Amino acid sequence: MLCTGVVTSVPSDAPDDIAALRDIKKKQALREKYGIEDKMVLPFEPVPIIEIPGYGNLSAPLVCDELKIQSQNDKDKLAEAKEKVYLKGFYEGIMLVDGYKGQKVQDVKKPIQRMMVEKGEAMIYMEPEKSVMSRSADECVVALCDQWYLDYGDAEWKLQANEALKSLETFCDETRRNFEATLAWLQEHACSRTYGLGTRLPWDEQWLIESLSDSTIYMAYYTVAHLLQGGVLNGQGASPLGIKPEQMTREVWDFIFFKTSPFPKTGIPKEHLQRLRREFEYWYPVDVRVSGKDLVPNHLSYYLYNHVAMWPKDNGKWPQAVRANGHLLLNSEKWVKEMIANQNNLRPGPADTFNDRVFASEMNAGILKTEQHYDRMMYKEALKSGFFEFQAAKDKYRELAIEGMHRDLVFQFIERQTLLLAPICPHLCEYTWGLLGKTSSLMKASWPVAGPVDEILIRSSQYLMETAHDLRLRLKAYMLPPKNKKGDSKPPAKPSHCTIYVAKSYPPWQHSALSLLGKHYKSNNGVLPDNKVIASELGALPELKKYMKRVMPFVAMIKENLEKNGPRVLDLELEFDERAVLMENLVYLTNSLELEQIDVLFASDADDKVKEDCCPGKPFCVFRSEPGVCVSLVNPQPCNGMFSTKLDIRQGDSRDSIIRRLAKVNRLIKDLSRVKLMRYEDPMLGPRRVPVLGQEEQGKLPISNKSVFNVNLEEKRVTLADNGLTVDVGDTLVYLVH
């Protein structure tokens, strides 16, 4: 086994570890970089230690092969592999190691821990998983003290809690996954404290029960509270049944809550106790508990545990549903603080890019729409347009603004969003207003004034998003294995390039159909005649006779779009420059599709098939894979996690295109401007020399942004043209990250 000195590597059952072992066995340069000799890794294979049903005794290699994980850089696939293996391994895995062979993994964890501690091979170490903050925003010092714990790791108790979770309605998968994860790791929890408000611990009254543990079945009290305190919230009201607080002994509560408990020795009349029991039985269980999702890892999980502990054999008393609220506003507050802290990193200068202008128009449109909803007292719609749609506009801007978000627009958004939400959540908005440095109260601020709204610009942005979505679907379809080809079901290679064709005008037969529809629409006051009339008139046009099978479906589509989008669908040309919109967002489209290059051409320059299938607003695309020559990119800098990788160099590549391609493979590269691409002065001997620590640029030359790479596919040779000179770069390039 490999050992890091901190945690043991288990390549048999840990996907990350088998990926690391395979990487270091395959890559000699990686071994040399870290001074690992071949004898340290090459002779070794994973050792089976756990048998997992469905995955065998080498679960990690199996899952990595199934998901086609190639290296440690496949982080998303590795996360999926861990999700498949870890929980199943813990709960269903069977040990193969002597001394524990045949036992479940979850059963031997504690015994192995005790054995190692007793032998002096291990010690118990505890620390908070993150910084602990009090509700007053003070950082807390956490100390491990001798006190009382609830053992939520007890196997039988945990099993019952999982049973309760199975029948629990959580309304969304995220909440269920959070519960499952919590129940998987939850062990002992300190349930007491020495100060503050709370109930005394019955068997040790120097301790108070802490709030998260104390408030887990209090809703059972609500079922009878009106009969004990007369509807007075502070508990001081007289009981309608004449019951005194001191009469509510443990035996009395047992009789109310448990069907099988005998009648207690008490001065309370039997009919009164029977009434209390009937009230409880009528109202319980809890139909739905609504709380914050941050309480799932603690309070809400204890809520399940304590219910199954109180009623272990009566699942009719277990909670029915938990609705965990999200933190939309809280996350917005965090985003505001982040923007304020990093405002100097936001883009200054004129806000005149395509996406700047779209964002400004969408904010203005949102202000007008929200104001109308408030005027009509449609508060739900006001929240929809003034928060959710406003946030969606910001999120789209952040995604599309490859050049960076503009500082003025970001702070206009924050200020306007705060004002639009003020009637609904004034306290939070007042707080946000203060974060912006405003000295007077939000209540004295004026309602935001909307600027001009460019509807055509907004529709062109909507066209961009629809086109990007359509391109992703087409790329997904392109990657599917071919059908009806025996013996060849492999999917095609991922394309590197795409050509998008846009049309200035409709094909002639569609042009004729639209012209006729537009004529009827104008002459009939916005009403189109019956399809029979339209079909008869179109059939009389000689240029449409061979297209009649396609004409009426096209007419049906136009009619449907006419109802949704209005008369502009009858226009023979788009109201905006389609190619200009795509060209201005070419970097976004290229990154979104994970391609190397996208070209945007007019359909009039393409073949007849493209001309027929392409019309205004509906571009046509062709994917292709450009061949290249594979070279190694090595990083000689020590201790930075930047591993060697291989990339294809294609004809016409530049320095920047290769750096962008490298960043897609190596996700540790965040800022492309910090990457320096270099070549060896001697392309033959340079890669064979051991790099000198601190002199990583020795023997190498920088590649300028004017350099152009040329490839000879037959000879698999790469040359570099720069300033009139052409040089051979060999099979290895160097990249440094500063």
Reconstruct the topology from this structure.
Blueprint: H1 15-26, H2 28-33, H3 38-41, E1 50-51, H4 59-66, H5 75-92, E2 94-95, H6 105-118, E3 149-151, H7 155-166, H8 173-185, E4 188-190, E5 192-193, E6 208-209, H9 211-214, H10 219-228, H11 250-257, H12 270-283, E7 289-292, H13 299-310, E8 322-325, H14 328-341, H15 354-375, H16 379-400, H17 407-421, H18 426-435, H19 455-478, E9 497-502, H20 508-523, H21 531-539, H22 548-565, H23 578-584, H24 586-593, E10 597-602, H25 608-613, E11 620-624, E12 629-634, E13 645-649, H26 655-665, E14 675-680, E15 700-702, E16 708-712, E17 717-722, E18 725-728, E19 732-737
Parallel strand pairs: 7-8, 9-10, 12-19
Antiparallel strand pairs: 1-2, 3-4, 5-6, 9-11, 12-13, 14-15, 14-19, 16-17, 17-18
Helix pairs in contact: 1-4, 4-5, 7-8, 7-13, 10-12, 11-12, 15-16, 15-17, 15-19, 16-17, 17-18, 20-22, 21-22
List keywords for this structure.
3-stranded mixed beta sheet; 5 domains; Isoleucyl-tRNA Synthetase, Domain 1; disordered N terminus; alpha+beta; Rossmann fold; Isoleucyl-tRNA Synthetase, domain 2; 26 helices; 738 residues
Please describe what this structure looks like.
The protein has 738 residues and is α+β, with helices and mostly antiparallel strands. It folds into five domains: 15-118, Isoleucyl-tRNA Synthetase, domain 2 (Alpha-Beta Complex); 151-325, 3-Layer(aba) Sandwich (Rossmann fold), CATH 3.40.50; 330-438, Isoleucyl-tRNA Synthetase, Domain 1 (Orthogonal Bundle), CATH 1.10.730.10; 459-481 and 494-624, no CATH class; 629-737, Ubiquitin-like (UB roll) (Roll). Helices cover 43% and strands 11% of the residues. The chain is built from 26 helices and 19 strands. Strands 13-12-19-14-15 form a five-stranded mixed β-sheet, covered by helices on one side. Strand 16 (708-712) and strand 17 (717-722) form a beta hairpin. The protein starts with 14 loop residues before the first helix and ends with a strand. The model is unreliable at 1-5 (pLDDT under 50).
